[in-house]
Specification:
CATH topology of the domain at 61-252 and 386-401: Rossmann fold
CATH class of the domain at 61-252 and 386-401: Alpha Beta
Order of helices and strands: EHHEEEHEHHEHHEHEEHHHHHH
CATH architecture of the domain at 61-252 and 386-401: 3-Layer(aba) Sandwich
Structural class: alpha/beta
Distance between the termini: 22 Å
CATH superfamily of the domain at 61-252 and 386-401: Vaccinia Virus protein VP39
Strand order of the largest sheet: 5-4-6-7-9-8
Largest sheet: 6 strands, mixed
Shape: globular
Strand content: 5-15%
Length: 403
């Protein structure tokens, strides 16, 4: 059972969008989006139609925040819960979570607890409660420092600035940002690196900040997954900057270790997204540990022939990678496409199942992934932070600050 603050359960709500908006305080337009995403069920085709809002406490901000027994986490861009789960497993109290991706919200609410599905721009500080730790994996978009300070809206940087708003208002002891490897090479319109601008903004708010490009396979995650972790420790604590070398390391399991584990016959996530007929034709030429380079030239589709003809121009891509059982898995991606990810099973003509990719991400066997489509399940898993790495990070942070 999650330690997250659970609201008192009530009977389901029913009514038109206007009725539900009046009862919940959520805008009609937002409720319509929730209905399309499966959070509300249409029960009567009247005019206006009637919708049933089951388990609505899972998706409405809980204004009655309780005093946490353990350091309390406020999380944005929470996804299906990988980062949050790791912090919970390290003994932190999960107080508030937010994400716009409704399929991920369904999974989060099923496995961890309440999550606010509204856009971050709609969230107020009274919705979140106090934060000892603020977590966020905001999209890495360039932004204008000067424009933001003048109050000029830069749509490419809105989500980062919205996140900083909560750093300002909540003043947590610890701030953790997670992002993709490409963040380190991105530049702002002024020519400066985006990572430097991010760290500067957090420093200005009273934090000692550092970042590290990490490969999660160094921390017991059976996957070569590179991510940038940014950590800010509030300066007035006198603890100094976070030491990334304090995160406990461990060798990972191989592909063979992961796929050899039995799967429960009742596991609803023991399902895989069917490959296209073209992909099925190609992979019969690809051996375990191989890639599209094993496919005879005359069997390639025209677009791949053009790339094969000029590999240097296309930077020698390695499509249709089929990691062998003795290898460490490559990065689990949100797209789950065989062209640019290692989603192909080493010896069977299929993608990995949802449960198998969840294992490569270190989600527990009991974690249930929800969504309107199987592609949505792959997407939320591919976007997640591996919970085991998150747990090790959280343990090191807790020891550093002395919670």
């Amino acid at each position: 059972m999650s330690k997250r603050e659970e609201p008192i359960k009530s009977k389901p709500l029913s009514g038109s969008f206007s009725d539900l908006a009046r009862i919940t305080g959520i805008e009609e337009e937002e409720l319509r989006r929730w209905a399309k995403g499966g959070l509300l069920e249409r029960v009567e085709a009247s005019s206006p139609p009637i919708y049933r809002f089951e388990n609505y406490e899972r998706f409405l901000p809980n204004k009655k925040h309780t005093q946490a027994d353990q350091p309390r986490v406020v999380s944005f861009f929470s996804g299906c819960g990988g980062l949050d789960l790791g912090f919970e497993n390290a003994g932190f109290e999960l107080g508030y979570a937010n994400d716009f991706f409704l399929d991920a919200c369904l999974s989060y609410s099923e496995n961890i607890g309440p999550i606010d599905p509204r856009p971050i721009q709609k969230v107020k500080v009274q919705d979140t409660g106090v934060a000892n730790v603020l977590l966020a994996g905001f999209p890495c978009q360039p932004f204008s420092n000067a424009g933001a300070r003048r109050g000029v809206s830069d749509p490419r940087g809105t989500l980062f600035w919205e996140t900083l708003k909560f750093v300002d208002e909540l003043n947590p002891e610890i701030v953790v940002f997670e992002n993709v490897r490409g963040l380190l090479s991105m530049k702002n319109p002024d020519g400066n690196h985006l990572i430097d601008a991010i760290e500067l903004e957090v420093q200005r708010r009273g934090y000692e900040v550092g970042h590290r490009l990490i490969n999660t396979s160094d921390y017991g995650v059976p996957q070569n997954r590179y991510r940038v972790i940014i950590v800010g420790i509030r300066t007035d604590l006198g603890k100094g900057p976070f030491n990334f070398d304090s995160i406990a390391r461990e060798l990972p399991e191989s592909v063979g270790d992961i796929i050899s584990k039995p799967v429960s016959p009742n596991d609803p996530n023991n399902e895989h997204w069917q490959l296209s007929p073209q992909a099925v034709d190609l992979i019969k030429y690809i051996p375990e540990g191989g890639s599209w380079k094993s496919v005879p030239y005359d069997q390639l589709p025209e677009r791949l022939k053009r790339i094969r003809d000029n590999m240097k121009r296309y930077h020698s891509p390695n499509f249709f990678r089929r990691f062998g059982r003795n290898e460490i898995m490559g990065t689990i991606t949100a797209a789950a496409t065989p062209e640019n990810s290692g989603i192909l099973h080493p010896i069977e003509a299929r993608r990995y199942t949802v449960r198998e990719v969840a294992r490569f991400q270190t989600f527990p066997e009991t974690y249930s992934f929800k969504g309107k489509s199987i592609a949505a399940k792959y997407k939320q898993i591919g976007n997640a932070v591996p919970p085991e790495f998150a747990r090790r990070l959280a343990v090191a942070l807790r020891e550093h600050v002395g919670f």
